[in-house]
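Problem: given the chain below (465 residues), write out its structure.
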Amino acid sequence: MDHLPISDVLSLRRSCKDLKPHCTKVMQKKCVRLYLHPTRLKDVLEVCESSDFAVSIEEIVLLGQSHPGINGDEFVEQQHLHYRTWPQFLACATDGYRPTYRELLLAEEKADPIPVLYEPLFSALARLTGVCRFSYACRPNGSGLCQVSERDIAAYSNAHAGRRHSLGGGHPVDILLTRKTYRWSDADMAICLLDSIPWPLTHIAFHQPLPLCDRINWDRREAVVGRTSDARLNINSTTSLTLTVPGNDKWSGVCLSLLNAVPSQRGFTIIFASSIDQWWEYEANVFRTRHDGDGDHEFSHHDIWREEGSSILATPPVFKAGQLSHFTIVGTSSIPDGLHAGRIIDFLRAHKDILRSIDFDHVFFSNYRGVTDIAGAMHTVLQCMLAMPKLESARFCVPRLGCDGGCSFGTDGKHIEMCGRYLTANPENFDWVRADVFDRLAEELGVKLKDGEWDFGEWVMRHRL
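Solution.
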């Protein structure tokens, strides 16, 4: 039975009383995650009421859509959408309850926080004593209970976008009711879960930025959480934190607050998830449109290429001495992310006496002291790593872009223009450099190309011996 899909095991558990104990054991083994989405809250409550899963569930995954993708000329409008996907009352999600306009006004006046309005859900989740991990994602990341597909998540979020409610079609009364019914965002719900439920969380991972963070103000968050601002988040036991940048204007502040709320942190991972891949698709569509004679299309690279999220490294966070030992930066675009070296250098120098492991993957450093100098920036970062007395492992992988064995880009136009080029951390000039810059650097340092990438961390470890 272990080889059966979860859906089949669940069907057997419901249909055959004799097989229920064995099915339950299989599900406890496979279903260590519980997915949380507004469309499945009734199912979540049923799972939490069962003693079979109170200990076996180890991770809560909040599902939602952080921001829209690029969709041709609609992108400029789409980037202003505000996803308020959580209704004012829990019954709206679990029982299809439709409150009257008067009820919604009274609720706003009363201003009960989320833990009060969603008390049955919060109480049920608090009974899951085995939970030790929390994450926020746009898709299910493994087997688990109450899953929702990425397509359905995106469709639900787009149907509850604040800007669309205020501008889109439908009867004005219906639009107003919808806007007042769906009041809370994923950011509101995530912070309340972390703040209110006493899970002994060891790992917290944001695989995408939180949307609509403007109300998550640590000076005045009582309206959302229901507690005064001097109370810290309930994540003192967390030892591993993963943050994804860039995000909206307020996301960097939330990141810093999360970092400061984790005194015992030993592992810190930053994921850079830029929109550069979506830019290729957008620009290809515009290129074809221009050839069709439909006029000019104005679109700035600044609209998608933003690095303000990396400002969480502008001032190195203060960690408890001897705690932070693992630092990771991962780029997720098809081409490596070019980052400002100064911020990383400050961070590495501030933690040089405690870091034991560094892993930089699919990123490189280009700008240092206001100048685009890849060789100088990379040398300085490597020297910082070399000066760490407790460093035990170093990995710094940069792939070599080019057409050997196939082009990375999907259109002929991009193949001709961009293949083999790297985008530096200078969005004002949108500078590109070719792979020969890294060829020369690798030759100088004696780093060989293996499996299509250089690992400059080898140079660090070689010189530490």
